[in-house]
Design brief:
The chain is α/β, with parallel strands linked by helices. It has eight helices and 14 strands.
Length: about 270
């Protein structure tokens, strides 16, 4: 399937590319903008919560909640990449866009790469944002914040984290912790991701599984073999670090609910119900 790209307001398109006209002045050229797409991987099968993308959240499937929040970030086109006709139908019923992918992908990164190549074979997209399909409470402004590190040409991948304020999270193996070098206000250069206990005085950071990739970085990443650290920790972002790729982290104020269990689903229902 082929899709048109929807451009944010205050942009124009020319034969030379896409330009931000908000800060243009007479006699000065408009500022070139990268072409951004948000891809939401969503597979229907889940061992802990079967049918998770279609789980009802106050009258709307969870995948549609994520779609709406990604659209609200106003970064560019939003597409759901799925292996389920039922998920695709739910997205299209909500006037969203979906693309079918293979069912044998082992990660969301592999799924979004297949979708990207199908949607944009001309390679016009510069930046790909991977928003997990089980984050129905993700803040749209946090999605936008993930792009900021990519202003630095040395950064391959950008992601998010929040300061751990609950002491129990320090020792919870289900909470992925990220550590690194502070290189600016609310920004780290990642050195490690781990499920191990957070030790020392801190601050300690709870990693949020949202990624913004340069297109070339995503292509390189999915073609790399799993690294030893990745296999040990069960964290694919370690593959990128082990290959010498640079990941920078923006620190945001809160962690969205990742819906993996029926208990998570009930918590999301309470929050979204106001």
């Amino acid at each position: 399937m082929r899709y048109r790209f929807a451009w944010p307001m205050a942009t124009r398109i020319s034969a030379c590319g896409i330009f931000d006209t908000r800060h243009a002045r007479p006699g000065f050229p408009a500022i070139p903008m990268p072409n951004v797409i948000i891809l939401i991987p969503a597979r229907l099968t889940s061992t802990r919560l079967p049918g998770k993308p279609l789980a009802d959240l106050n009258g709307m499937p969870m995948i549609v909640h994520v779609l709406r929040r990604a659209e609200s970030a106003q970064l560019g086109e939003v597409v759901v990449a799925t292996d389920s006709e039922a998920v695709a139908a739910a997205v299209e019923k909500a006037r969203g866009r979906a693309v079918m992918t293979r069912s044998d992908h082992v990660s969301g990164s592999d799924r979004i790469y297949e979708a990207l190549e199908a949607i944009d074979p001309e390679h016009r997209v510069d930046i790909v944002v991977n928003v997990q399909g089980d984050l129905p409470t993700i803040n749209p402004s946090d999605i936008s914040a993930a792009l900021k590190p990519l202003d630095d040409a040395q950064v391959d991948i950008a992601t998010l984290a929040a300061v751990i304020t609950d002491a129990d999270e320090r020792t919870n193996p289900n909470v992925v912790k990220v550590s690194g070098q502070q290189i600016g206000p609310a920004r780290l250069r990642a050195k490690n991701f781990t499920r191990k206990n957070a030790t020392g005085t801190g601050p300690h950071y709870h990693h949020i599984g949202l990624y913004a990739y340069r297109r070339a970085a995503l292509e390189r990443f999915v073609k790399l073999p799993p690294s030893a650290n990745e296999q040990w920790e069960k964290l694919e972002q370690l593959r990128a670090l082990d290959a010498g790729m640079r990941i920078d982290v923006m620190i945001v104020k809160s962690v969205p609910i990742g819906v993996d269990t029926p208990e998570d689903l009930e918590k999301a229902r309470r929050l979204l119900g106001g």
